[in-house]
Amino acid sequence: MTTPILALWQRGVHLNQAPYSFAPKADKEEHQRLHKVSAIDAMAASVDNLKAEGRYGPSALQEILEGPQKILSARTEWDDRMRKFILYHLKQGNLFGYGFEPPRKMDSQPVEIPASYWNGRIQWNKANLSSQGLELIEIRVVSRQLRDTVLNVGNEDHTAPPAAGRPTVGPAIKAAFTALQKAGEIDVDASQQSHYPKVRAWLKQNVPNLSVPAEEISDKTMQKHFSNPFNILRKSSKL
């Protein structure tokens, strides 16, 4: 028998695919860019170049490995960052996880995973979660909007999670800039990046419900919203 919960699970995204499926557009584009570059091709190109230059030995081997290592490290960093992003929204109730208690049988029904359970041990590739003495398997993730639609939940915020979360980051960063400027904490002779820890600290203290935790906002996102007011201030200070 197909219950609403089972129907919802069937329309969900496998836990391991959730970081990409629910990622904001910019992060999806970054993921695609990182996976367009082949680590093997990068290694082969380095080997060919070194052969052409007649270079061999330990230093050459290290150079051969540097290209693939950079590519793989960037992919790992993306996975870690976006998994934290998904966990944040699962804990905030913007995304919902559904899984089965093992062993799964023909008539088993999935259960909705409470937000507090996401502090447990997660096996992303297996889509499993161990938490508070329980184990859940075959986990899939859905948006609040889909959940509320399928379960016919009324009187709740139907905002889709990532799209709703990311836009608040920009205005918050600009607000932090304004506050820090008034406090005399913006040094136009220093680099933009040197101010980012101050911005994160201000956000953590003054915007506790920010959709993305302050410490997880990337430098790239920070630069996007911090650069313009900083450059304007820098130019005006030299007039």
Outline:
The chain has 239 residues and is an alpha+beta fold.
| Average residue pLDDT | 82
Strand count: 6
> Could you say which structural class the secondary elements and strand pairing correspond to?
alpha+beta
State the helicity in percent bands. 40-55%
Query: Can you tell me the overall shape?
Result: flat
List keywords for this structure.
54% helix; flat; alpha+beta; six-stranded antiparallel β-sheet; 6 strands; 239 residues; 10 helices
Describe what you observe in this structure:
With 239 residues, the chain is of the alpha+beta class. It has ten helices and six strands, in the order H-E-H-H-H-H-E-E-E-E-E-H-H-H-H-H. Strands 1, 2, 3, 4, 5 and 6 form a six-stranded antiparallel sheet that branches. Helix 3 runs antiparallel to helix 5, helix 4 runs antiparallel to helix 5 and helix 8 crosses helix 9. It is flat, with a radius of gyration of 23 Å.
